[in-house]
Amino acid sequence: MPVKVDREERPDIDSVYIEVCTALTGGAGWPLTIIMSPDQQPFFAATYMPKENLGNQMGLKSLLLSIADMWQTEQGKLLKTAGEVTQFLLRDESIKGIRPNEEFLHKAVEQLYASYDSEYGGFGSAPKFPTPHNLIFLLRYSKLTGDKKAREITEHALRQMYRGGIFDHIGGGFCRYSTDREWLAPHFEKTLYDNALLALCYTEAYQEGHLPLYKEIAERTLDYCLRELKSPEGAYYSSQDADSDGVEGKYYLFTPDEVKSVMGEETGR
C-alpha cells in the first residue's frame, strides 16, 4: 500500500524516516523512499529512484517486484532487519512518544492558536499550507469541549482559503499551498491527499452549521477529484502537475476577457 507523506506539512514524520535512511544507507535526502512491514517497521530506504532501471541503478518497479519475491521466500530476513532498525530508533527515549490525554489535546490547541493568522486565516506565514488535518482536529475539539474559539478560527480559515487563489474557482479543487500569506498566489500543483482531506473538512463543517457554502465547496472538490484524478482503471492519481508545457500555472492563467468569453459576462465577473 503506497503512502505519500508531505515532508513540508509533516516534518515530524520526515525526521524519523530520514534517520532510518541514514542508518540503512549512510546518507539521506529527498525524495525519500521507505518500504516497511505491515506493522510499520521499515526495512528498506533509498532516495531518488527512477521508475525503470537506468544503467546500474535499479528502478522502483524492479525493486518492488524483488521485495515482493523476498517477502514470499525470505520474509524472516526482512523482518529481522525491520526489527533491528526499529530498535535503533527507539534507543532515543524521545522517539517513543507519549499516550495522548486531555492535557495533551489542550496543549496542541494552544500551539495552534499561537500560530494562527487572525487576519487571513491559516497557520504561520508564506508559504502557507491549508493543513486540513489541523482544521479537522479543531472542529472535533470544539464539538468535544464546546470551545467556540476553535470553531470560529476553523470557519474563518475555511472561508479565507475558498475566497483566495488557492481554490480553483473554475475547475474546483485546491492547490497544494499559497506562495503568499493572503492565499492569493498558489503553487498550482493539486494533490489527492490534500483535496480528500479538505473535502472531509468542509463536509464536517457543513454537518455542524449547515452553511450551504461548505457543502458546495466539498462537492466541487470531490467533483474535481473524480473528473481529473481518477484513472480509467478506477484508481486515483496522487497529484496533478503544476506545469504545462514546462511553465508553472500556464494551464490555469486566464485573462478576464478569456474567462468571460467562456462563462459569460455575469458569471465571468
Automatic annotation (TrEMBL):
Keywords of the record: Kinase, Transferase
Gene Ontology molecular function terms on file: kinase activity
InterPro entries per the UniProt record, alphabetical: 6-hairpin_glycosidase_sf (IPR008928), 6hp_glycosidase-like_sf (IPR012341), Ssp411 (IPR024705), Ssp411-like_TRX (IPR004879)
Descriptive protein name: Thymidylate kinase
Domain Spermatogenesis-associated protein 20-like TRX span(s) in chain numbering: 2-89
Gene Ontology biological process terms, A to Z: carbohydrate metabolic process
